[in-house]
TrEMBL record:
This is Helix-turn-helix domain-containing protein. It comes from the Bacteria. InterPro entries: Cro/C1-type_HTH, DUF5753, Lambda_DNA-bd_dom_sf. Residues 16-70 form the HTH cro/C1-type domain. Pfam families: DUF5753 (PF19054), HTH_31 (PF13560).
């Protein structure tokens, strides 16, 4: 269990090592073609040291990697300043967003699928501007209006992944408390619940409600997010949010535990169809 940058270095190194092996090169041959010392390739592959985007591009060229999506994903893993800034819009908010949040957005922007259990708030990708502002105000008591405006702007910009081609496949399990907690007042909550109803009808969004009647469940330990990547499952990661930081779980054993937990919660939750009716009912009563 580690913080984002360390996980990214290790995942990037492992993927670059696999690509080198596929290219039929030893670490010494790769270093010679890149004009480096062999120890630099070794440090990158073990995650012992960071690697800058230009070096990643050079290695990908040496290994003959032409797939633009794979190249983009590996550049994202090389750090918060990686890749093409035209595609990484969150770089413009470096002065406002903590590194852990930028890490989260970078993973979210490159993932093909996202599974999330939410126990307290509506998922950020489905929040209305009013709801997002109310949540942000509560989390950052005393923050300036300007900072609140910026953070809400970031929250809404993140939602573009659901309108991308192809869009992010989002599966969310919501504890009933998420729907019952009145955030921002009755009007704000009613509009937010109606937004959930709209989102639940999208083909790439799957929402399920875990009602109070389900009793005790494994999700009571707290919310989590699982990011999956279509190009390589070795980059899949679980993210756990804390008040001041995020932790990333990368081991296959940890991923399996959280995937099994999500599947178990999905069984105990209402079906997507019944969940839609449940949310619509909550919206009518808000």
């Amino acid at each position: 269990m580690q913080h984002g940058p360390a996980v990214r270095r290790r995942k990037l190194g492992a993927e670059l090592r696999a690509l080198r092996t596929s290219a039929g090169l030893t670490s010494g041959e790769a270093a010679r073609l890149a004009g480096w010392h062999q120890s630099k390739v070794s440090r990158i592959e073990t995650g012992a040291s960071g690697v800058k985007p230009p070096d990643v591009r050079l290695l990908l060229d040496v290994y003959g990697v032409a797939d633009p999506q794979l190249r983009e994903l590996l550049l994202v893993l090389s750090g918060s300043g990686d890749g093409d800034d035209r595609h990484h819009w969150w770089h413009a908010y470096r002065g406002v967003l903590p590194p852990t949040y930028r890490d989260f957005i970078s993973l979210e922007s490159q993932a093909s699928a996202m599974r999330t259990l939410e126990t307290t708030v509506i998922p950020g990708l489905l929040q209305t501007p009013e709801y997002a502002r109310a949540v942000t105000e509560a989390a950052l008591e005393g923050a300036s209006e300007e900072r609140l405006d910026t953070l809400v702007e970031v929250r809404l910009a993140r939602q573009d992944v659901l309108r991308a081609t192809p869009p992010l496949e989002l599966s969310a399990i919501l504890d009933e408390a998420v729907l019952r907690r009145e955030v921002g007042g009755p009007g704000v909550m009613a509009r937010q619940l109606n937004r959930l109803v709209e989102a639940a009808r999208l083909p790439h969004v799957r929402l399920q409600v875990l009602p109070f009647g389900a009793g005790a469940h494994i999700g009571m330990t707290g919310p989590f997010v699982i990011f999956s990547f279509s190009r390589t499952s070795d980059l899949d990661v679980v993210v756990l949010d804390h008040l001041t930081s995020s932790l990333h779980l990368e081991r296959k054993e940890d991923l399996r535990v959280y995937l099994e937990a999500f599947d178990a919660l999905s069984i105990h939750a209402l079906s997507p169809e019944d969940s839609l009716d449940f949310i619509a009912g909550a919206a009518a009563g808000a």
